Amino acid sequence: MQGELEAALSVIARVQTALTVAGRTDAGVHATGQVAHLDVPPDALTPEQLVHRLARLLPPDLRVPAVRQVPGSFDARFSALRRHYRYRVCDAPWGVDPLRRYDTLVHYRPLDETAMNTASTLLLGEHDFAAFCRHRAGASTIRALERLEWIRDQPHLLTAHVAADAFCHSMVRSLVGALLAVGEGRRRPEWPASLLRSTARTSEVTVAAPHGLTLVAVDYPADDQLATRAQQTRALRSAHPLTD
Amino acid sequence: MQGELEAALSVIARVQTALTVAGRTDAGVHATGQVAHLDVPPDALTPEQLVHRLARLLPPDLRVPAVRQVPGSFDARFSALRRHYRYRVCDAPWGVDPLRRYDTLVHYRPLDETAMNTASTLLLGEHDFAAFCRHRAGASTIRALERLEWIRDQPHLLTAHVAADAFCHSMVRSLVGALLAVGEGRRRPEWPASLLRSTARTSEVTVAAPHGLTLVAVDYPADDQLATRAQQTRALRSAHPLTD
What is the DSSP string of A222-234? Predict the structure, then answer.
């Protein structure tokens, strides 16, 4: 996706600058609230012209709803305060609505969202999420999980709302996999949090399929705080190299 | 779709009876509220068992959310009082949300829904919709259009809500095609209704793509009215053979 967007921009705006992306999602994960930035020359197209040209050039699975000029201190990745994800699971005995099967996991057994929310609450706060992360050499797996909540939007549709300053690779999908085991009654609500004692990824957790996951929003501070935030994040990352 | 469902039922319930379907949609049209009936032997599986077995046997683009026993006088096609359709159009300059591109038409030029609703209102009531119908030998094209209304659900998402006792082949898509021409400003709001004077299909109307259209509901009378309604519909259809 990032490569396709960079290629389209190089055709349209004749800029070869690489994009900086807020949340580098795993393959198969969707993003409705992705944010990216790039530097363009002063004589570039207007934001409206860019939107129109990109709409015609990009494949239908990649859309750019808005383009705007930002302060020079804005960094899509390092200025971000937090990322918001959603994970959709349908537990109807008949399966998932065909029109939403692209972004919804089908789970034929009924899920107990009360147990899942009990387990989710125990995971909130700053922890080493090593058990839930794909290991990357030299990268920290300490994260501050700010929200993890399951809401039954429709009789058979459960949505997990997840927010943190940043996430490790496959972290949300691993948390969801552990919580589905709780929802099914195969594991007790205390089990996912008990894995936080682990310092390495555990094979006990099944990573939930990527297509149920969507990056829905990225929060940024006010314009006058962008530079400070980017500086803080960069300092933190050099001490504890993080993925997003 | 009907063939796939009949094949699955013949495997599961060992019944070779053909299904009777409420709304036989054109290829590429979706249905979230389709209704069908069939006769099963008294020793057949329970409705719950059928739902479970069908979920495992049917392809992911075909789901049966509910099965239930109905009075012997119920006829999915002839007992129906009316069919409800929706047509989704996105007029954002950047195109359509990738996750909804399967059931939403993309229309890059902005649409004026006030003009479209003015034109829609003029089409309501019982008319000969020949100009908007694919001709079928011996079939009437007289229909009672009960609802045709455009609602802008989101800044760039327009949904047409359409209801009638029954529809001819490609009728909703032709109406939508004519109304899009009004919404763009290429035609005046009086134009679609002026075509009702025609007794044959007109080449002036572009049939809108099927994937924006969904059959969302079929209305039936109370159980004690099912037989009377089916009788009435059958009498009407033999006088003026209709498609649904």
Answer: -GGGHHHHHHHHH
Global confidence as pTM: 0.90
Domain ranges of chain A: 2-78, 82-217
Structure confidence by residue, pLDDT tens digits, A105-153: 999 999 999 999 999 999 999 999 999 998 777 788 999 999 999 999 9
Spell out where chain B has E strands.
20-21, 30-31, 36-37, 82-90, 105-106, 125-128, 142-154, 157-164, 213-219
B33 interfacial to chain A (CB closer than 8 Å): no
Strands B36-37 vs B82-90: parallel, antiparallel or unpaired: unpaired
For the cut 70, the answer to whether the pLDDT of residue A49 exceeds it is: yes
In this structure, which topology does domain A82-217 adopt according to CATH?
A: Alpha-Beta Plaits (3.30.70)
Interface touch B63/A103, C-beta < 8 Å? no
Can you read off the two tokens belonging to residue A69? 């000029």
Residue B85, phi-psi category: left (phi > 0), alpha (psi -120 to 50), beta (remainder):
beta
CB contact under 8 A, B94 and A65: yes
Strand partners, B157: B90, B154
ipTM score of complex: 0.85
Considering only the beta carbons, identify the residue of B32, B97, B103 that sits closest to A63: B97
Which residue from B241, B219, B207, B97 is spatially nearest to B146, judged by alpha carbons?
B219
The fold for domain B2-78 equals: Alpha-Beta Plaits (3.30.70)
Alpha-carbon span B182 to B197, nearest angstrom = 18
